[in-house]
Specification:
Order of helices and strands: HHEEEEHHEEHHHEEEHHEHEEHEEHHEE
CATH topology of the largest domain: Heat Shock Protein 90
Structural class: alpha+beta
Strand content: 15-25%
Number of strands: 16
CATH class of the largest domain: Alpha Beta
Number of helices: 13
Strand order of the largest sheet: 6-5-9-8-7
Length: 560
């Protein structure tokens, strides 16, 4: 702006100075010629009076009279009679070639000087040219001086005149950079003061609006970020405009990697991309679907989708928002529940069917045969015991899972628990010639919790090791402190477990070998009970096993 004003001002100043020079040049030239004219007229009158006074003209011819006038007036003289004819002329300058170039003036002669009616005086061109050169120099100097003065005054005035606008531009830049608290300060009662007041008012309103928008945006982002479900919003071109933290974890993608990019180019799972494309390519978005994804990890997702519209114009669609609910655990629980119901039904039905069959056989006459009756009753007794064990395990598991159930807690040592379990299971181990070995470090910190639950956990693990270890094997129990944890390992050199079963070992009624599990008297709930007891102690459990090399169950229990 300042540059433009300066250019315009300079142009106008130049035009003004040149125009003034031209007009002043014409004015002064006319003045100069008028002064020459006045001088010639006055001088010619004086010369005429001199001639009359001295009576010289009677002895002179007209050319001599013309020369007399020319010498004393300082201009070429041509004498005319009453008829307008030349009767004499000066010989100082030849008029033949320069008459049109010379300034001339005709002076009437009122004095009675022979027959002279008028005299035309011609001024030398050199005189006019000399004046013109001097005047041009004067005008040039004046123009240059005027331009310098105009430049200096213009620069000063432009600085003064544009200072408010420069300040306004500066403040505007500051506001555009996010400094919304900046204000302009103009003083006076003119339009600039009014402009400043209106600008400051606008800035204040803008600042308040932006603060409200920032506050709303922060609340919105905080809400979106805190949503447990994954949320992705796209524009109409499927370019990502929102991507929350849950979505980052769900798809193993950072927000900065996807913002502004097409979602189909960033999501790694092809099935999910296909589903998103299908759900968005219809007029009314399909608002709920379920899909399994395998990248980056296996998950079952329930997808909700809907158009993003304006509240005041619902028909205008700005994009689509997708909410991804991770229902993997829910599906797993559903499957576990179904398996549990099926397994409980099966586990209860099988012995009951057996009991009913044998009772019916006894009723049909087999009871008369004491040997057969005794055998059948023994089988019935075993099945009843099996049912009792199953029911006891179910009740125990239910009790452990019941968070409202009050558990008696106390401090106790690991060594005494393992010693007691070894005493209980020694006969079972001796029957298979299995060695029970304890490697418990001295001075282990006591554990705080329910003693009976902890004993049940250790017993289930050692009992399993004994059941699935060949005759002559060994079961080793290790316990030691590591940082702020107690590590307990139950190791055996038995059959081992294939890796494909490791992830499901602690599920209810899950059996690696169903036939062998029933053969050794397992209910399928032992390891599930172990897992839930470990959780009561805020611990964790893991398994390492290989077919033919045995298994190691590791329990980590924090001491604080």
């Amino acid at each position: 702006m300042k540059k433009k004003i300066f250019i315009i001002f300079s142009f106008l100043s130049l035009v003004g100075v040149i125009t003034t020079g031209i007009f002043s040049s014409s004015f002064f030239r006319n003045m100069y010629l008028k002064s020459i004219e006045d001088k010639i007229v006055s001088n010619s009158i004086l010369v005429g009076e001199l001639l009359i006074k001295e009576q010289h003209f009677g002895d002179m011819d007209f050319n001599s009279i013309a020369n007399f006038y020319a010498e004393r007036v300082g201009a070429e003289a041509v004498l005319y009679d009453e008829k307008g004819e030349i009767i004499g002329e000066s010989s100082m300058y030849s008029l033949n070639n320069h008459e049109n170039e010379m300034f001339n003036i005709t002076v009437p002669i009122d004095n009675n000087i022979r027959n002279i009616s008028s005299i035309k005086f011609y001024v030398y061109p050199e005189q006019i040219e000399e004046f013109n050169q001097k005047y041009i120099q004067y005008i040039t100097i004046s123009i240059l001086a005027g331009l310098v003065v105009a430049f200096l005054l213009g620069v000063r005035y432009i600085d003064y005149a544009t200072k408010p606008y420069q300040e306004l531009i500066k403040i505007t830049k500051e506001i555009s950079n996010g400094h919304y608290g900046e204000r302009v300060s103009f003083y006076g009662d003119d339009d600039l003061k009014l402009l400043a007041d209106n600008f400051n008012s606008m800035s204040s309103k803008l600042q308040n609006t932006i603060l409200k928008l920032q506050e709303s945006n922060n609340k919105l982002r905080a809400t979106i970020t805190s949503i447990f479900d994954g949320l992705i919003a796209f524009d109409n071109n499927l370019n990502v405009i929102l991507f929350n933290k849950s979505a980052e974890k769900m798809f193993d993608i950072k927000e900065e990697q996807v913002m502004g990019k097409n979602v189909l180019d960033t999501i790694k799972d092809s099935d999910l991309c296909k589903l998103i494309s299908e759900m968005t390519q219809v007029e009314n978005v399909i608002n709920e679907r379920e899909v399994e994804i395998f990248k980056p990890n296996y998950r079952v997702l329930n997808i909700h989708a809907n158009h993003i519209t304006l509240s005041n114009n619902p028909t205008r669609k700005l994009g689509i928002v997708f909410i991804f609910q991770d229902i993997t655990k829910l599906k797993q629980l559903e499957r576990v529940r179904e398996d549990f119901v099926a397994n409980v039904s099966h586990e209860l039905k099988t012995p009951l069917t057996s009991i009913k069959g044998f009772i019916e056989t006894l009723k049909d006459g087999a009871i008369e045969n004491k040997e057969v009756a005794y055998k059948f009753l023994g089988i019935v007794d075993d099945e009843v015991n099996r049912l009792n064990i199953l029911i006891e395990d179910l009740l125990l598991l239910s009790k452990i899972e019941d968070k409202k159930h009050e558990v008696n807690k106390e401090f106790f040592g690991i060594g005494e628990v393992i010693e007691e379990v070894f005493d209980i299971l020694s006969r079972q181990a001796l029957y298979k010639n299995i060695s029970l070995i304890d490697e418990i470090k001295d001075n282990l910190p006591n554990i705080y919790g329910n003693y009976n639950y902890f004993k049940q956990m250790i017993m289930n693990l050692i009992d399993n090791s004994i059941k699935y270890t060949q005759n002559g094997g060994e079961v080793r129990v290790l316990a030691y402190a590591e940082k702020e944890n107690i590590i307990i390992k139950i190791k055996d050199n038995g059959m081992g477990i294939d890796k494909e079963h490791h992830s499901r070992l602690f599920e209810r009624f899950y059996r690696v070998d169903k036939a062998r599990s029933r053969q050794v008297g397992g209910t399928g709930l032992g390891l599930a009970i172990v897992k839930h007891i470990v959780l009561l102690f805020s611990g964790s459990i893991s398994v390492e096993s290989e077919i033919g090399k045995g298994s190691t169950f590791t329990i980590v229990i924090p001491t604080k």
